[in-house]
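Bench log. Compound arrived from synthesis this morning; before running ITC I wanted a structural hypothesis for how iron/sulfur cluster sits in the protein. Inputs:
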Amino acid sequence: MSKTITIDGQVIPFEEGQTIMEAATEAGVYIPHLCHHPEYTPHGSCKLCNVNVNGRTCSACTFPAMEGQQILNDAKDINEERKKITQMLFVEGNHFCPSCEKTGNCQLQAVAYHLNMLDDHFPLFYPHREMDASHAKVLIDHNRCIFCTLCVRASQQKDGKDVFAISGRGINKHLIINAESGLLKDSELEATDQAAHICPTGAILIKHTAYQVPIGERIYDHTQIDQVSLNSENLQHDN
Amino acid sequence: MTAFIQDLVEKNHYQHTHLLHILRAVQAHYHYIPKDAIEQIARLLAISRTQIMGVIEFYSFFHLSPRGHYEILISDSITDHLLGKHELAAYLEEKLNVKLGEVRADGLVSLDNTSCTGLCDQGPAGLVNGYALSRLDKAKVDQITDLINQQTPLEGWPQALFQVDDNLIRSDLLLSAPIPAGAALQSAFNRGLKETLNELDISGLRGRGGAGFKTATKWKFCSEELNDEHIVVCNADEGEPGTFKDRVLLNSYAHQVFEGMTLCAALIGAQQGFLYLRGEYLHLYDKLEAILAERRQAGLLGQNIVNADFNFDIEICLGAGAYICGEESALIESLEGKMGIPRNRPPYPVTHGYLGKPTVVNNVETFLAAASIAVNGGNWFANIGTDKSKGTKILSICGDCAQPGIYEYPFGTDIQTILDDCGASDVLGVQIGGPSGTFISNKEFSRLLAFEDLATGGSFIVFNQQRNILDVVNNFTHFFAHESCGFCTPCRVGTSLLKNQLDKIVDGHGSAGDVVALEELCQIVKKQSHCGLGQTAANPILTTLERYPELYQAQLKKISYEPGFDLDGALETARRLAKRDDAGAHLAQVEE
Ligand SMILES: Cc1cc2nc3c(=O)[nH]c(=O)nc-3n(C[C@H](O)[C@H](O)[C@H](O)COP(=O)(O)O)c2cc1C
Ligand code: SF4
């Protein structure tokens, strides 16, 4: 008899050691997330995947699945708070979707659509943030960084480098580059690195590729992020 | 510089876990962390420069650009405000000729705010190059100004400036009868270690740091973990504004605190212990090191302790200005030489703590009590207090009362009794448990000090009728935004949004929907945040909004919507560019 958890009334089997997110994804249940990626150590920071486990709020990407858990995920109040958390990510940075070359391929934008986010709700912070265009092939626009640390983890765990880190405290958090100059051009980053491609938003971009895929034909222009996410993540899992 | 850093890193045995020690020394020497130092330390410790950068930018006491040779920080806690901090800061700015947040042009002195320094019973307080300054007033500022302008080294400053008093006013079970050094260890080995853990269980002792987890259970869980090494950590980060009892315990009862740690080590099988001492308590460091040395001499630390074939030692680690490092998993990260970011749990520290080893983290007072219990037995403790809260609690009482200081009370004591004892009259309310705790109004003084009613890590701040509650709430809300580690979205962004939204209301720019929006935001921050900081950051607003909704409503303007920014102010740049200042170049905030 395999062990099971219950998500929104649906009984889902899991293996010992799996997180709630892993069990859910395998069973075709989407739990919204941004900082999570199945190939990397979970981080648990964006809090979009917060679910209600036996009455307690837990991050699905880090919390282990345990026999008999009663989990609420796709509930109105939970999604409403997820929308607010997404709005927090929007107002904290400078996200002007219509002028961003990642539009349509951006997970932040796609999650926002999925959660039916129609405005920013909170006052915008308009922080002053820099760009780093020093690298020949990769561009960083700090305005769009959401501190998910996927680039940090990809560089360490896939590329065998250590190009990125998050520095600072509280609202002053920021992405830094491992180079004496602090500039991307002086780091070990190559355009072929996983870290250069993993960004869920438009903060790290490959230069000279901007509009090769026209707006309207991009990933989330036609498919909701839940479907995209479940398909690609289960594909990666099967490989 | 190369030789200085080389020597420093060597003294720290090239341990990357000692990064904070090393950076503290560099900061003290150069008054900032120079870029070249970062590069050299990274090479010598074989860690990335980004880890060092991260740590520097995380802790308030490290800087990438030079501070003054005399770095003066003033405590920005509400208790300092009650004692005239604003006026004092203005006087300091004037005398020292430097603005808050800036370095004087000659580089000699810098001035800034800092979070509560734990001298709330003798404020307004500050720090000079990390050393505590108490009871600041104009005369002392004059004196300090002269000392700085004459460039007198700190060693030459009058000791009176650094005088920190215990202000121990009410002793009970623990404080009236400290145990002789070694007594708890002797008792434990005589009685048997298992039996001693059982006594601790009988005592019902619960953690004194705030959360109140049963201590015997924590120690038992940790002892059951199979691992060659176990770790004992004493949490002396004491950053909750209004708390200072650990300062006094470490100043006058340190033997017993170390004995409690050693007892824990014997019971769980640990050889290594740490005292994580908040940076603000640098003034206690030498004294504590001397007591550790004394205990080694006396065979109470080191090899073969009390001739019981038991080895254990304690290292002191200083923090560097980060309230979040009081959270146990953030504290462990900090001990490992990293940013203080709370870990994901499970696993918990008792199974995976310091460097992945099973670790017990307890508050200073918890260790103190455990040592007494080992000597006097579980019932001695359990006979006092309430059903769910055994023994006594040591309070740090400050604010509007005649006698601020340390008071030990049996659990179950009512608030009115405490207020009478400390000489508080005309009381508006009391903040119990610090900003992360609860504000109670003067209609609730029959409530009890107990985990099941009013739990507190020790902070007890009294406010009289002349105080404005919104000022208090505003100070606390700014504190949390400043101290949020920034790891998770709801707290990183949420505490800043709370701060801005509250400022808007307090400054009189709020309108009808703003209090509702504030409360809704509070609920999200409370419910969705990763750790105790975010989960309690909205408490100041929530607990006062519940009790004084009319106070918030009274701040609101009678219009349905008020822009969050100053419309006319926003036109200033345009006016300057256009060289205009006529009526047509101005905008009213709302249509008249
Ligand atoms: C933001 C935050 C700050 C904390 N600060 C302290 C502190 O300064 N001292 C302390 O003992 N516990 C503090 N705690 C509680 C610790 O996480 C932990 O529960 C405690 O040290 C355990 O010891 P105890 O069981 O003896 O109370 C803090 C918790 C949080 C969330
Ligand atoms: S709740 Fe705040 S302090 Fe705690 S992890 Fe999140 S951002 Fe950091």
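What the model suggests: The CA atoms of residues 23 and 41 of chain A lie 15 Å apart. Chain A touches chain B at residues 42, 44-48, 50, 57, 59, 62, 64, 81, 84-85, 88-89, 91-92, 122-123, 125, 146-147, 162, 164-173, 176-178, 180 (CB under 8 Å).
ITC booked for Thursday regardless.
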